[in-house]
Amino acid sequence: MLTGFVILYLVFSLGIGMYAATRVHNARDYITAGRSLPIWIVTAMVFATWFGAETVLGIPATFMAEDLGGLISDPFGAALCLILFGLFFAKKLYRMNLLTIGDFYRNRYDRKIEVITGLAIALSYLGWVSAQVTALGLVFNVLSDGTITQTQGILIGAAVVLMYTLYGGMWSVALTTFFQMIIIVIGLLYIAAQLANMTGGIAPVIEHAANNAKFHFWPEMNAVAMIAFISGLLTMGFGSIPQQDVFQRANSSKNERVAMWGTVIGGVAYFLFAAVPVFMAYSANLIDPPLAAKWLAADGQKLLPELVKGHLPLLAQVIFYGALLSVIMSTASGTLLAPSVTLSENVLKGFVTRRRHLSDRALLVMTRWVVSVFAVLVTLYALWSLDRETGIHQMVENAYKVTLVVAFVPLVAGLYWRRASTFGATLAIGLGLGTWIPLEVLMTKGLLPDGEGLIPPHFAGFLMAVLGMMLGAWMRPRQGH
Predict the structure, then answer these.
(1) Buried b / exposed e across 403-425, counting CB within 10 Å, b at 16+?
(2) I need a surface site. Which of 90, 131, 368, 476 has the fewest CB within 10 A?
(3) In a domain, 407, yes or no
(4) How many CB atoms are closer than 10 A to CB 289?
(5) In this structure, is residue 179 part of a structural domain?
(6) Contact 414/114 with Cβ under 8 angstroms?
(7) Residues of the chain above pLDDT 70, percent
(8) Rounded distance, CA 46 to CA 335, Å?
(9) Whole-angstrom Cα distance, residue 1 to residue 347?
(10) Where residue 375 sits, what CATH number does that domain have?
């Protein structure tokens, strides 16, 4: 019964995606949905895209294993990113009438900066999209009682998401995401109410968490702990800003006010609603302590699905897994489209047009091919990460290191500093990468202590990128501004 519902839900999502494909007539429709979306759809897209597998499965697992401070990157950093983007970036970028965020780097700097930042932005999505298909694999594995392995589930989930994203593009993302957001909100609130009835209300769960020091948030008052804390917040809070998915949702709006407020409201809604799955998972400590202990020791990401499956009636299970699938698929579709569009528009298109003119139709075909290829890469990365037992929350955290180091400083300086120059952007990227990558390699190989008196490699790279931009703008300021 439950498995049959899941299959029906997947077929219905495919149907919405295929219907959306009928509204795609050119590349701009495919990438920006014709810049025609109202605030309620933009808000839904921002919320549902960011409310992904890490929010329902990864964040609660991290909270259970650590405390509130372990969530500094997500949801705190993630919500910070969306609010900052809406307040300080959405209007300025919307007015430029760009197709992708990578176009900004070409217009403000040059083709070289466009390609480097485009590759960095696309690369950052491997971890985020892989986290979603990994979660789909986990859901199929739990639902089938192990009959479908997580590897097989990853392959099935990636194929479904690819099919409806491939044809409908941003229209598919917009329509399916709006439907999925309704399922997410209603479904998770219903399940939370069911679990609260079993714990005697919300207060006992909060009291239990407080008694176990789970609400400890601030780091120790020493330099090392403070730097790690700030780094965790800014990696996602700043590193997520120069991303195609955030830009794409704002850029699909019908006007700049919708672009701004749709992003801000979506960010606030994401932050507030992220508390719901944390409450749901932690309630396992009161409902079934042995179950909580078992899955925290084995795989904390499976605790909530197993709790629902073992303690709630069939109707509640159907609602929960419908909401969970909505969560994962809404994020996976949007984050699969974004890097593919960036690669097509900002990396491949320039090489093709050197030899011949690329028509709008040809760009649309090329983008769909890139979506397919990127889906394959995402699936391979998810399988590789599964073998390394990388958690969903960690996969998402790691995704934004490269954009923090490479793309954030040139974006902010290009928008807000008239002296920012192409040489400054080049120096920022060079110093950032030249600092981050060697330190990351040395730390990975165990040649540097991990977190003991050392600035995190990506944060050191970010600081050097700021220095590089300042030095470059001083040595060769922008001319003719």
Answers:
(1) bbbbbbbbbbbbeeeeebbbbbb
(2) 476
(3) no
(4) 10
(5) yes
(6) no
(7) 91
(8) 11
(9) 46
(10) 1.20.1730.10
d(CA 163, CA 165): 6
Q: pLDDT, tens digit, for every residue of 245-280?
A: 889 889 989 999 999 999 999 999 999 999 999 999
Q: How confident is the model at residue 479 (pLDDT cuts 50, 70, 90)?
A: low
Residue 195 has a pLDDT of: 93
Distance CA 197, CA 110 (A): 59
pLDDT single digits (tens) 20-44: 767 777 777 777 667 888 998 899 8
Number of Cβ within 10 Å of residue 21's Cβ equals 17
Total number of domains in the chain: 1
The predicted structure's pLDDT at residue 411:
97
> Which of 439, 431, 396 lies closest to 52 in space, CA to CA?
396
- 332-385 per-position pLDDT tens digit: 777 788 888 888 888 888 777 666 667 777 877 888 889 899 989 989 988 887
Residue 26 lies in a domain: yes
Identify the CA nearest to 105 among candidates 115, 120, 94, 91. 115
Residue with tokens 């999505």: 125
CA distance 122 to 124: 5
Task: Identify the burial level of 475 via C-beta atoms within 10 angstroms of its C-beta, where 0-12 means exposed, 13-18 middle and 19 or more buried.
Answer: exposed
Token reading at 397 = 């955290």
In a domain, 460, yes or no: no
For residues 287 and 196, what is the distance between their CA atoms, to the nearest angstrom?
10
State how far the Cα of 243 lies from the Cα of 249, in Å rounded to an integer: 11
Say whether pLDDT at 308 is over 70: yes
| pLDDT (tens digit per residue) in 407-462 | 999 999 999 999 999 999 999 999 999 999 998 888 877 776 655 557 888 999 99
Inter-CA distances, 221 with 71, 73, 234, Å: 18, 19, 18
The whole domain housing 75 covers 2-217+251-387
